Amino acid sequence: MKPLHFWKVGSILQLSKELERKIRIMIVCLRGARSEEDSVRRVMLYLLVAVIVFAGYGVRAAVGQEQQPAKPSTAAKQVRWHGIIVRISKDQSTMDVRKGTVERKIHFDSSTQWTKGKEVLPDMSQFKEGADVNCMTTPDAKGELHATRCDLVKAE
């Protein structure tokens, strides 16, 4: 089968003279003599570009996976509970703190840090019923809150 010449393409498609001229220029450029060396260089260039593109996507995917934060476990999660002390039971090492209409039982132990502003208190003697407190707690498997630090915001 013989290739279709550009003057036949122009007359078949009924192209404008300007468009036909551009097509002729492109065909002449494409017919230009190329050595085998030029073809090899072009193929190598295309391969190099393809390798760089695929490497870039691989690096982007790997960086995206590294930046995703790990899901924190429930034991390491800290919960802040701010409210008014309703009851304190030193025998059971608990205090009930009301936040609005919700009341939570907060457990404390010898490792709980008692603070008033920036001052660290030696014990919980200043914490009384009716005091405004801010407790940093960690929930256990049962959902009970264990205080790691309690801050006395306002004593009653």
Please describe what this structure looks like.
The protein is of the alpha+beta class. The protein folds into 2 domains: 62 residues, no CATH class; 76 residues, OB fold (Dihydrolipoamide Acetyltransferase, E2P) (Beta Barrel), CATH 2.40.50.140. 35% of the residues lie in helices and 31% in strands. It contains 3 helices and 7 strands. The protein has a 5-stranded mixed beta barrel. Helix 1 runs antiparallel to helix 2. The chain is rod-shaped and about 95 Å long. The model has no long low-confidence stretch (mean pLDDT 76).
What's the quick description here?
With 156 residues, the protein is α+β, with helices and mostly antiparallel strands.
Top keywords for this entry?
5-stranded mixed β-barrel; OB fold (Dihydrolipoamide Acetyltransferase, E2P); 156 residues; alpha+beta; rod-shaped
Oligomerization status of the protein chains: single chain
CATH superfamily membership of the largest domain, which one?
A: Nucleic acid-binding proteins
Strand content: 25-35%
CATH architecture of the largest domain: Beta Barrel
List the helices and strands and how they pair.
Elements: H1 6-13, H2 17-30, H3 36-67, E1 79-89, E2 94-99, E3 102-107, E4 113-116, E5 119-121, E6 132-139, E7 145-154
Helix pairs in contact: 1-2
